[in-house]
Amino acid sequence: MPKGKPERGSDEWHMAGSPIIDELNERSREVFRRLVEAYLETGEPVGSRTLTEAMTEKVSPATVRNVMQDLEFMGLLNSPHVSAGRVPTQTGLRLFVDGLLEVSDLNADDRAKIDATVKSNSADMGTLMDRVGAALSGITAGASLVLTPKHEEAPISHIEFVPLGAERALAVIVFSDGHVENRLFHPPAGQTPASMREAANFLNAIAEGKTIGELRKAIETEIAARRQELDGLAQELIDTGIALWMDEEGRHERLIVRGRANLISSGAEAVDLDRVKTLFDDLERKRDIADFLELAESAEGVRIFIGSENKLFSLSGSSLVVSPYMNADRKIIGAVGVIGPTRLNYGRIVPIVDYTAQLVGKLISDRGKG
To answer: What are the strands, taking DSSP E only, across 24-102?
Structure first.
């Protein structure tokens, strides 16, 4: 990913090119940029002496303090303690990300780790996505989120019904990318192993290469044409099994969360531990997060959500860096992301998330061609 600016996480923020950034002269911009960079690196309030030593031009600590006071008045900085240094506010972080952040190139070591995971040639797409999540959390030292593909849009390879008793059966559907869906359901009364085989044979004869939606239409046409040939029990089972997959409440994607332990440091203060506990509670609501990531798929490229911009994580004061990935038809089918404290190393994490999303999309596209 070339150096540049990632997309804003919320349309409410229009910092770049707006009066608030235009008001900053060159010195103010440098003080602000260096303060935020130091804060993101250490997590500690930054004082005027530290900034004075880092400034390009020779200035006095008093001059830097005056600039910091101006920035605080503008709502970009905050002083957590009376005599301490400053930290950026959420508004300040948004300004930094939108207008001053320099996204670095992906370093060779991070690239090699991602390549090794994504190119592991796992036959099972679910296992591969688990590995991607684990690798992403390990590389970034944050928690990773991986929203797997929505397989109602993927071509079907094979379908099977497996009896598990008088009132239970397993519906198995294999997709062309190697992903397998297993769903327990209650089959219509009176089903026999023979009727289940007949139903599966009927479906497999017309299913290959079709999505579930396309298969549903094909089934209606075929049943109308072959009503006399198809056993009534098999026909009822087909209707029940396909309805199971087509049910709007039955979601066909899975959210994988990895690396929560990375968010707790050995030296964490009580307030930080409370924040992380709140974050863990948020992460338990996986359905809500998956819904949120689907909203994040509305635009291409990496997006950054800071603090309360992301309503799911507003209480924990966390940030989310997320990017959708696409299939061969350039359709967004999932997302990968990293969540952590607002002092994330955005310049390093943005290219990691972007590169991982691109590789996952390419892998899924290649498997779809196979």
So the answer is: 77-78, 87-88
